[in-house]
Amino acid sequence: MRKSIATVSVSGTLTEKLAAIAAAGFDGVEIFENDLLACPLPPEQIRDRAADLGLTIDLYQPFRDFESVPADLLARNLRRAEHKFRLMERLGADLLLVCSNVSPTVVGGDELAAGQLRLLAERAAERGIRIAYEALAWGRHVNEYLHAWRIARLADHPNLGLCLDSFHILSRGSDPIGIEAIPGEKIFFLQLADAPLLAMDVLQWSRHYRCFPGQGNFDVSGLVSHVLNAGYAGPLSLEVFNDHFRQADTRRTARDGMRSLIALEDTLKGAGRAHPVVPSGFAFAELADGDPAEGRRISEVLAGLGFLRTGTHPTKPVELWQQGGARLLLNATGGDPALVAIGLDSADPGGAVKHAESLLSPVLPRERAPEEARLDAVAAPDGTEIFFCDGSWLSDFEPDRQVPGEITGIDHVALTQPWHYFDEGELFYRSVLGLRPQGSLELPDPYGLLRSKAMASPGGAVRMVLNIAQVGPGDIPRQHVALACDDLMAVARRLRAEHPGLLLPIPANYYDDLEARHEVDPELRHLGVLYDKDERGGEFLHLYTVTVGRVFFEIVQRIGGYEGYGAANAPIRLAVQHSGGN
Amino acid sequence: MRKSIATVSVSGTLTEKLAAIAAAGFDGVEIFENDLLACPLPPEQIRDRAADLGLTIDLYQPFRDFESVPADLLARNLRRAEHKFRLMERLGADLLLVCSNVSPTVVGGDELAAGQLRLLAERAAERGIRIAYEALAWGRHVNEYLHAWRIARLADHPNLGLCLDSFHILSRGSDPIGIEAIPGEKIFFLQLADAPLLAMDVLQWSRHYRCFPGQGNFDVSGLVSHVLNAGYAGPLSLEVFNDHFRQADTRRTARDGMRSLIALEDTLKGAGRAHPVVPSGFAFAELADGDPAEGRRISEVLAGLGFLRTGTHPTKPVELWQQGGARLLLNATGGDPALVAIGLDSADPGGAVKHAESLLSPVLPRERAPEEARLDAVAAPDGTEIFFCDGSWLSDFEPDRQVPGEITGIDHVALTQPWHYFDEGELFYRSVLGLRPQGSLELPDPYGLLRSKAMASPGGAVRMVLNIAQVGPGDIPRQHVALACDDLMAVARRLRAEHPGLLLPIPANYYDDLEARHEVDPELRHLGVLYDKDERGGEFLHLYTVTVGRVFFEIVQRIGGYEGYGAANAPIRLAVQHSGGN
């Protein structure tokens, strides 16, 4: 299907927007009026610019507060429309979006609205222009798409049809199945936006919190399938108002929008396209280790946690450290200690990379010697390298043994997402890896709020937590690898005895409160182990190491089907980390 | 009255918070539980720390979901309470805030709630602790303060009283006059917060958008006067949850909170304290002019606008430029061209500075020679120096003439407020200068949203626009001085003919739209003049100069009682400025 996007969805000036939209591979654009008004180019040159970029101008928008008005105002509104028709001729646009009237002075009655819209359509027809009438969710009288359709049917003019917008329909909780009652040729245009579920005024929700399909909570693809069933053959067009997108990089946002439409098409086409090759587990996590001259190294922490170095890469400065099913690569290529890559077990690494590439993820070039294992990798929007592994990679390191130990594997990794690009990260991990969102949280931090979203593969073999980088004095955006074990108290006892300096200290006040809320083992306090209990009785024991560079480790034990991440305790950790507990 | 603040209101760790709160001059604190839990100090040391800083611990909070529960849960809740009572003994706190239950499992009935709260009060009494019961605006059964009072009256225990919170009362639209029906000695505590009027879920509104009294739209001082009429004699205590405050400087926020309580007391005491000496006009605006070696200077723009240099300061590198009633000082002390100070005509400069100082504004030291005029000045939170002038300052410059011209005076100045400190700026200009908020707006900018608030003295002789600095690639936080005139078209004609390079170019597309909306003089387009019309028929003509450093000028003409600032045209200006139109 043709793909389009409204210029208001991305940041920048109109010419910057057009270039970014074309570069992302869109077929067309909706020209948003304010972008045009502020542009120094005359409409003819904007038309030429779009054509040179291979973009069609699919819609001009919005034309507001036209219908259901008294006669004197109608005359003024028609005059206003004639100006816009002339502009559209210069621009080479033949479809005008008319939003349902929101003015408090509007006069009621479907007959009046239909008559005035018919008049508008007649004037438009003289110039070969068509009118797409849209029910705004906060329209004064008309705010449901089926009401807009009743009026358009009454008006009964070939140049008058509907614009459907997923936000306006789904934000009101309207059932989109009614769309199938509308003849496809009367649906002149389809605008798509998703949104998180928020309890707020719908106008503010729409103006600030829309996002691309797949980034929010609406069933946008379900709505699109009803529109296709109705016989709609026009473009899928993104129209998003989002405070973060407004400040984000123009090209990056445009590419993210294109990714959302490709993922939406994947969902619609079902088996027709490659679906995500869902990873079956963590193959490894790769950490850049710091300069040995500068303070503590990750390798010291790993050794303390019971990991052993079991192999070295034949040609790169990379070591394999193992314990139980947990495999960590330490990369000594320099830079601050940080989590740089994640390896995922995949039944079809080649297919996984191909799928990621179809979703506009950059495939990473891998320089390798002929005898080395093939590694397929793409870059996530947060910069993390994602490797798809079939197991052969281990042969590079020729590990000579298994390392039994307390740690059984990697439970989850927590990645810091760049500010303004949280939604992009979620869409990537959702569409490329097939992870499912588990919930999102805002956690108090001494210098702000930490936004956090958890995602997991079906079954939970791969879990990731995406955190938004905080801002604050002396702040470090931290990442961590959480390691699973079967007996956290035993791990804690050993670490407390042998490596007490590796553990993040937990304040006694935390345990006073914990003991007020739950009947817990007093040894938790002694060992500095944190505790959480979910509503179904599942329990979570966990502890943290100190931070090295940007990285720390968590050790966790899940009991009785606990599915969370100890979020209730995260503010304690954040405060201790900020207080210099490291 | 004693002044207190909840530790949650400011950023940082608990010990940082206590130090900042004491430094701002508060008498006491409410200890917010999460701050204590994350603190490495035991309660005894927190008590000592507060005492050393001269702070009393006025309240411990919150204790949640206690009342209206089944018997088994009551036993667990009482056990939980006993833990908190022991903690409070160690902390030296004798007042516990109990919020009305929000759990979906709560059991209804005032008798049950009263009986359980009485039991809690009895247990508390054994340890000399009192319970302040608060109706949360989103409490499951109890969410109105008079309902909480009915239950407390039923419970009838001397250790059980109420906590009143202005947010919970005013956010629901409850009439605070009912407070006068509550005996003052049963109001154990008073928490104050203001908030902007927002159409959103009350819980989200409360958790993210509260602000200090005088920064929002609630009549907080009206509520306080009812509480005082009821006979309340406890502290005024701020309790604010605000996303910006969470990220702002701890000491600065604490000082801002103290300013809000002092201003609130001023309002309550009426004539008992100095009221703002409201300025009667702009005496001058002072601009730092750039280095003559680097590009265009402000003096060139002023000369083009018809200003004349009429004087030079005897001892400082400062020139006076005049036209009509507009006086601008150009300061050649170096740095980028910027608006650095505003002089305000004041009937009592000494009193104005004393009032500003009572509101914690730093008074600026002025080095001057004995024969020079006295200048009283304070620093605004945004760094602008505010001078209070009685007219004698002009004698320093010995201006030898009046400069008749097209410009009649300064209409308004637009100042950029630092990110996270928008509310602080509003409170300063409101409480120190007596300006009144006129409205706030969010305007689209090519790289974000510009938040803008207009304020004016009664009568409009002094008008200011506060803008939040945007972020974005290559962004400059701009300031401007708007100059008034009686015939903007004449000014525009002269400038277009004589100095076309000084004018910000306005796109032709703007005029196509303007002519679609209004029947306007076609000369507007030719001259690049912008136009706005308000709902009452008032009209506004304006134009902009190019930017020098951080500063540009606007020239405006108000017709027919127009009170706005041409906000509808600001996005056009912002886009042209971003596009390099300068």
Automatic annotation (TrEMBL), chains A, B:
Xylose isomerase-like TIM barrel domain sequence ranges: 18-261
Domain of life: Bacteria
Pathway connected to this protein: Aromatic compound metabolism; 3,4-dihydroxybenzoate biosynthesis
Positions with a binding annotation for Mg(2+): H412, H480, E554
Binding-site residues for a divalent metal cation, renumbered to this chain: E134, D165, Q191, E239
GO molecular function, one term: isomerase activity
Cofactor(s) the protein needs: a divalent metal cation
E.C. code: 4.2.1.118
Keywords from the named record: Isomerase, Lyase, Metal-binding
Catalytic activities: 3-dehydroshikimate = 3,4-dihydroxybenzoate + H2O
Pfam family for this entry, one: AP_endonuc_2
InterPro entries in the record: DSD, Glyas_Bleomycin-R_OHBP_Dase, IolE/XylAMocC-like, Xyl_isomerase-like_sf, Xyl_isomerase-like_TIM-brl
Family as reported in the entry's similarity comment: Belongs to the bacterial two-domain DSD family.
Biological role stated in the UniProt entry: Catalyzes the conversion of 3-dehydroshikimate to protocatechuate (3,4-dihydroxybenzoate), a common intermediate of quinate and shikimate degradation pathways.
HAMAP family: DSD
Protein name: 3-dehydroshikimate dehydratase
Organism: Nonomuraea rosea
Lineage, highest ranks first: Bacteria, Bacillati, Actinomycetota, Actinomycetes, Streptosporangiales
